[in-house]
Amino acid sequence: AAGYVNLAVCENGKDAWSKLEELAARPEDIAQHVQMVITDIEMPQMDGHHLLKRIKEH
Fold it and tell me: Which of 32, 41, 46, 55 could form a disulfide with 13 if both were Cys (CB 3.0 to 4.6 A apart)?
């Protein structure tokens, strides 16, 4: 895991976006929970392009 100890794995882009929204709603800075997002381009429900676009917009 290259030194990372707290990993979250999501089945698809929609689940990943939901997890990120949940973390963003917390009072502390989201950067305390997420430092990196690795995604596939082709995923069911929401692909990697749309996921990254949403992340950049927020």
Answer: 46
- pTM of structure: 0.82
Domains identified in the chain, total number: 1
Query: What domain range includes position 46?
Result: 13-57
In angstroms, how far is CA 25 from the centroid of its own chain? 14
**C-alpha closest to that of 35 among 13, 5, 57:** 5
Asked if 46 and 35 touch (Cβ cutoff 8 Å), the reply is no
Two tokens at 41? 């381009």
